Amino acid sequence: MSQNTLLHPRADLELPGRLAGSLTATRGAVMSTEDFPGWLDRHRQAHSFRVDRIPFGELDRWSFHPDTGNLLHDSGRFFTVEGLHVTTEAGPHREWYQPIIKQAEVGILGILVKEIGGVLHCLMQAKMEPGNPNLLQLSPTVQATRSNYTRVHEGAAVRYLEYFLQPGRGKVLADVLQSEHGAWFHRKSNRNMIVEVEDDIAPHGDFCWLTLGQIGELLHLDNVVNMDARTVLACAPIGAVDPDRARDPFVAALARSRNAGALHPDVELLSWFTAERARQSVRAERVPMAGLPSWVRGTHSIDRPDSRFFRVVAVSVQAGSREVSRWTQPLIEPLGLGITAFLTRRIDGVLHVLMRARAEAGFQDAVELGPTVQCVPGNHDDLPPEDRPAFLDLVLSADPSTVRFEAVHSEEGGRFLNAVSRYMVLEPDEDEVPLDPPPGFFWVTVGQLTSLVCHSNYVNVQARSLLACLNGMLAGTR
């Protein structure tokens, strides 16, 4: 056997185009987008879903450790709620304490895709999560922690899991460890996967086949596509979409942004980001939750006295469609509607996004690329203008004519209660977003972002959600 027969192409050159074809296809071969809301409503009505707040004393198999005060499960699995002591060298708050979720195990977020009628379709799931404001949302094919899929809960098996755990069951199109919310998770990551199958799969009743274009249209609706689906979709190596087919000049600039040149070459972007990681100092030390300064544990919640940022609560859950139909658990409940926004600018006809090198206490590498603005505005009401998040007031006062995308999306519903943000893409006047931005900010193209999400710990989960929304804006481009 000659040596050449052992070699393979380093990349599937046809895949980006096939994914782009699915993105521009808004007519599914299995279900129409118009029929999807009714399908989701029928699933919501077919099962019994209920979430009730309960006192900590009514948690089943969860308890506060007598010495540390940490909140943990008696199996030693799932996750713990612990304390964190954070110190930084920048910003208006240089030191603080907070509760944080420690979940050491790596979960799987996976989407199966299959070519149907010549177009790639995604197998998506109607999945209930106790923290989602409307409970049932569109989720990946598989969305499971290791404790879930190893059945520590003694519940039913996770459907279609074998395609993501057994090599050879399908063709891997994307597979990368990605971080989760660094403000509420301590060094949490999930395996984001897209796997193509040729098997004839008859979807279980809670699953449906949709094109990327159909999902892109659904991303314009409030609280329909969940966070886990958005982060996986962002990892898809989608190819170029013909800008000449776009009816809207902004969308045409967005299409060019996938494969055109950039204001800054990739090596310059990486050098800037590496320098930001070296410059920004964040020290986060896990500490016992007992006696955590500035936090008070009551019968039903753990709060800050000023009622800001978030609280820890307990809930009882009934979910007829889940692997386990009843359980109790703690959740983190953010206080206030968040704002997550990309400011954009067309540079020589190519759309660029203003990214921020964002430090969060729970990140593995301290700093990741985040949206231009990512915060709950009410948490900063008492700060002087110079200490408020940069560009926040510009976003809050934006002229509606500059808003290119806006939808309310929820965050991870398995650990956070009613965590919702307004996801926005804006194109303000050029004099409001200079080519030479403030320190910590950098202009990048969508193509550069797509390259970075192929690697771990570069782009945070909120920015990945916005990247999925940007891709969704290309849905149906003719």
Summarize the structure.
The protein has a domain at 243-283 and 336-472: EvaA sugar 2,3-dehydratase subunit (Nucleoside Triphosphate Pyrophosphohydrolase), CATH 3.90.79.
Question: How would you sum up this structure, described in words?
Answer:
It is a single chain. The chain is an alpha+beta fold. It has a domain at 243-283 and 336-472: Nucleoside Triphosphate Pyrophosphohydrolase (Alpha-Beta Complex), CATH 3.90.79. It has helices spanning 15-23, 36-46, 146-149, 162-165, 212-218, 227-234, 249-256, 266-279, 392-396, 446-452, 461-472; strands at residues 49-54, 62-64, 71-73, 80-88, 95-102, 107-116, 119-128, 136-139, 142-144, 171-179, 189-196, 207-211, 282-287, 296-297, 301-303, 310-319, 326-334, 338-347, 350-359, 367-370, 373-375, 403-410, 420-426, 441-445. Strands 6, 7, 8, 9, 10, 11 and 12 form a 7-stranded mixed beta sheet that branches. Strands 18, 19, 20, 21, 22, 23 and 24 form a 7-stranded mixed beta sheet that branches. It is globular. The protein starts with 14 loop residues before the first helix and ends in a 6-residue tail after the last helix. The model has no long low-confidence stretch (mean pLDDT 94). InterPro entries: EvaA-like, EvaA-like_sf. It comes from Actinacidiphila paucisporea. This is Oxidase EvaA. Pfam families: Hexose_dehydrat.
